[in-house]
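Quick illustration for those who missed Monday's session on complexes.
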Amino acid sequence: MSGAPFQAVVIGASAGAVQALLRLLPALPGDFPLPVLIVVHVPPDRDNALVSLFREKCTLPVKEAEDKERAEPSTIYFAPSDYHLLVEQDGTLSLSSEQPVNYSRPAIDVLLATAADAWGAGLCAIVLTGANDDGAAGLKAVAGAGGVAIVEDPASAQFPTMPAAALAACPTARVMTLADLLIFLPGLVAA
Amino acid sequence: MPHSVEDIEIQLLLEALYHQYHYDFRHYARASVKRRLIQARTQLGFSSFSAMQAALLHDLSTLPRLLNYLTVQVSEMFRDPAYFRALREKIIPHLRTYPSLKVWVAGCSNGEELYSLSILFREEGLEQRTMFYATDINPEALRAAEAGIYPLDQIRKFTENHQQTAAPTSLSDYYTADYGRAAFDKTLRERVVFSDHSLVTDAVFGEMHLISCRNVLIYFDRSLQDRALGLFRDSLARKGFLGLGAKESLRFSKHAEAFADFVREEKIYQRREP
Ligand SMILES: C[S@@+](CC[C@H](N)C(=O)[O-])C[C@H]1O[C@@H](n2cnc3c(N)ncnc32)[C@H](O)[C@@H]1O
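Prediction with S-adenosylmethionine bound:
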């Protein structure tokens, strides 16, 4: 458990994302006290189907992040497909159709780096399964700003490349399996 | 609320840009501005934002280079085809009832959206009674818009998009291709005024029947979004239409009351009676 108070959780996932998130998100209790912001790499020309999928499975409300809304506690936000999701310093969210980063839009790096800027030590960031290296630079920024950086254990991740790249870029990151995360996440407390 | 030294430097840089050149990025969504300034710092070879600020104030060649970072020029013809299809099927029938029309493409970038609309209006037989106003703050983008030339490798996507708008014609009717470029028919811009106009600092310039302002407001903070939306309200004729980008809405705006949903899914609004 982490006793320190937090302001938000951000998660990045790519290949294998749905299965990993299906284990984690439905397990979060309805009174989970933090906003949860998620970037999953999804194909650009499709509506983000993750929202309806997870809305059915989760106790917490699940929605697509909207431009200039405030990140509220006890809410799960997915980045819309084909837009970057950014966090402003006042804790509101912005969308952007800037160029893809790491061939991805939304990019995990963009969310993690801006969330690190906004929430600093109040941020818990997790890089899950994936087959590219998006999120590595972002996780390094999270740790640099004093936040808690976590990677899914590459040994058990469905696709180890992404968490391994994040760990290489951010060697101080904690390594956790999905089972570890199932215990860790519900223990987080709000600032 | 600047946090770090870097944030303070950025604030000062934006102040300098405003006071010296009247480009006002102070209320753009800061997280994205910061990212792009960090890119500019690396790619233009500045050691800090303070060094960038000094160059901006003392070396005239810095401004245009910086503007290309501060403004986002990502665009496509018939971007989000469903939007253009909704214009064709739901808005054009209303516009037909007017003897003359004014259409404003605000934040036209390199002209992709403008040509999309002028093609759509030609297809629907409304072009001859319409004046188009295409505005932006980036002079390079405005020049590109006026030229109407795009790399051929973008044309396939543009063509696909166009087809999905229930188009009665083919995009290839409107351009000639050579040397890897597609040059759009200059008659498409005969009824277009290209102009430098900022949604942040400039005023109403005409009474519009349709304003299309897509993927511009997401780069503004809420106060600036309100400023722009107020400008749109004041620029629209009675029952005029406003079209926004797919992820933009009036929901959080203090001007929400001034508009009614017209095609909800496509973010097309109609000005309410005052
Ligand atoms: C992402 S592009 C949108 C292009 C097109 N409307 C579309 O949806 O594809 C944003 C454009 O807004 C312009 N812009 C930024 N600030 C502006 C302002 N204050 N007033 C007018 N245009 C602005 C930028 O220069 C850029 O060309």
